[in-house]
Structures are given as C-alpha cells and as structure tokens.
C-alpha cells in the first residue's frame, strides 16, 4: 500500500472517542498539508511568471510563502508523529527485549507529549507578546501574530498524538511507534 493510500484510508487503532478524534485530526492534517504545498507551488510559479513576463514580482508573494512554510512545518510535525516518521535514535531501544521497548516507548511518548505541551504554553505567550506589539506584515498589512497561530496548533496536535501513542502502548500487547504504526523495520534489502 502506498503512502497516499495509507493516508486516505487512515483509521485510528484507538477505541471509541479517542479513535474518532485521532481520525479527524488525521484528516485535518492531510488537508492542511496538501493545500499548503499546492498553494505554495502555485504562489511560487505565479511569482516567477510575473517576474519574467511582466518584469515585476508579486509584492506579497514572499509573505504568503512565509505563512505557508510555517503552516506546513507545524502541521507536518503532527503528521510525522502520527505516521511514526520522526527521527529515532534506536541503538539502545533495539537492544531491549519487547517489554523494555514497550516501557521505553511509553516513557518516550509521554515525555515528548509533555515537551510539546510545554512548547505549546510558551508559543501562546510568544503570540500574545507579538499581539501586544501590534506589528503588521508590510505587504499584506495584517498582524504578524496571526501567521504564528499554526505554531501552538502544531504543538497541540503533536502533543495529543504522542499522548495517544502512549495510551495505545498501555492498552495493547504490541509496541507501537504511533497509534497506527507497529514497531519494526521494513525489509529494505534488495535482491541482486
């Protein structure tokens, strides 16, 4: 199954309301990421065409791409956590027996969730500070704090995802990297 099919057919392995919330967040992330990448590509191509055909760039194109990069980055953090695509340093983890890996994965998930919620807290204060300063984007003319709304939203979604991963590991026999990704490695060797 390709990555696109997995995302389109994503169903959380969590029971009840947790599974529903997880699936809804997954759909929201997919829409945000797809729209963000498409809009950034369209904006960039339109700016290049304007520069070469009309001799002038679209004056707000850089600000639009800045907003989209922030949006894609912080929506992408939750996506990576959901699909077990985050960077892992697994030498010690891989050497542990299944029970040790499970305990360590629960600890890692809970600790990472706490870090995400800590960053959520401080990102809200950062946005409030930007709001109090009243700065605006020069070309688009709207307040700078608005473009950073994606930061706490991304930390919130990622923290929830890691919390759900910990719950999944506490309620199942297997070890999960995320609510839908079972621990293990795909066979990457190719036949010669």
UniProtKB/TrEMBL annotation:
It is a multi-pass membrane protein. The keyword Hydrolase does not apply. GO terms for molecular function: transmembrane transporter activity. The chain crosses the membrane at residues 30-52, 64-82, 103-128, 140-164. The keyword Cell inner membrane applies. It is found in: Cell inner membrane. Residues 42-169 form the Tripartite ATP-independent periplasmic transporters DctQ component domain. It comes from the Bacteria. InterPro entries: DctQ, TRAP_DctQ. Keywords: Cell inner membrane, Cell membrane, Membrane, Transmembrane, Transmembrane helix, Transport. One of its GO terms (cellular component) is plasma membrane. It holds the Pfam family DctQ. Belongs to the TRAP transporter small permease family. The complex comprises the extracytoplasmic solute receptor protein and the two transmembrane proteins. Part of the tripartite ATP-independent periplasmic (TRAP) transport system. This is TRAP transporter small permease protein.
